[in-house]
Amino acid sequence: MTETPLPLSVLELATVGSGQTTADALAGTVAVAQTADRLGYRRIWVAEHHNMPAVASTNPPVLIAHLAAVTERIVVGSGGVMLPNHAPLVVAEQFALLEALHPGRIDLGIGRAPGTDQHTALALRRDPKALSAEDFPQNVVDLLGLFGDERVEGGLAERFTATPAAVSAPRVTLLGSSGFSAQLAGQLGLPFTFAHHFGSPNTVAALTLYREAFQASPVLDRPYAIVTANTLVAEDDEQARRLALPGQLMRLSIRTNRLRPVPSLAEAADDPERAAAEAMPSNAIIGGPERAVAELRQLAADTGADELMVTASTHGVAERVRSLELLADAWGLAPAASAQVA
């Protein structure tokens, strides 16, 4: 007997490589989304980052609209919208509109951090008083109310609705890399996604908090946890390690606040900081299909994840597409014709 494999999904950053334009990066994201759709990945999420030379994904709702229009069945969402940057009513209206255009295919993943520096956050929100994360729980509740959650009393929903005649709502998920959003997601009975790809050592602890805090809701009757993982698969382990080096150098540039586009393979091989990048502690899964599957299964077992979400960081889109193909085949994903959306 063959067990049904745990669902796999994709987190896509629309990375800009050396010598590439924003248009090139977004075309690459389209290719990744269409590949994931064809191969049977459950969902694809796009991130919100600002003022970063290596990331073209600045506006999730705009990118989600395009990706949903050029795919057929995969769920498309945000991983995530950084709520401190935006008024809840604006976010609710954007995602209610997306849900009306693509019913049952829209996720609203919400993050508590601004996802950028304070100057950029201020330019986005314009009011220094609005930059605090203290209002995050109330803003999340307001969003739920705007989408028609009957549990919510008062707040914005007393006077506003996200759209005049909704028949469905986007699936709201909280994202986090610590225990705060984990507990809030549990208390609200929402799915929770832990950013394991950040390299945090607190994955299991946060998921334990989520499950302990969980209260059944109209959304979920039991906890549902997604765990993200940096995952790059190639034909063999040696090739995967070579392809992973540009992504390692990008992460080093972020940690040292010397931002730049993702270097090419040739640039990465000769980069003076190559040794430092390769020596950084990492929980990335890098290797051939057999190794990648074994390590992802171990991650699922260690965390009790209901779903894994992979993100690949390298210079070329062809390599990212191939990584998804190799992983889907080795994992046993059902192709689009027989895949079930949930």
From TrEMBL:
Name the species this protein comes from: Modestobacter versicolor
CDD domains for this protein: Flavin_utilizing_monoxygenases
- Note the superkingdom of the native organism: Bacteria
**InterPro entries cross-referenced by the UniProt entry:** Bact_Lucif_Oxidored (IPR050766), CmoO-like (IPR019949), Luciferase-like_dom (IPR011251), Luciferase-like_sf (IPR036661)
The UniProt keywords, alphabetically, are: Monooxygenase, Oxidoreductase
Instruction: Supply the name of the protein.
Output: Alkanal monooxygenase
What GO annotations for molecular function exist for this entry?
A: monooxygenase activity; oxidoreductase activity, acting on paired donors, with incorporation or reduction of molecular oxygen
Gene Ontology cellular component terms for the protein in this record: cytosol
Q: Which residue ranges does the record assign to the Luciferase-like domain?
A: 14-306
Q: Which family would the database say this protein is a member of? A: To bacterial alkanal monooxygenase alpha and beta chains.
What's one Pfam family here?
Bac_luciferase
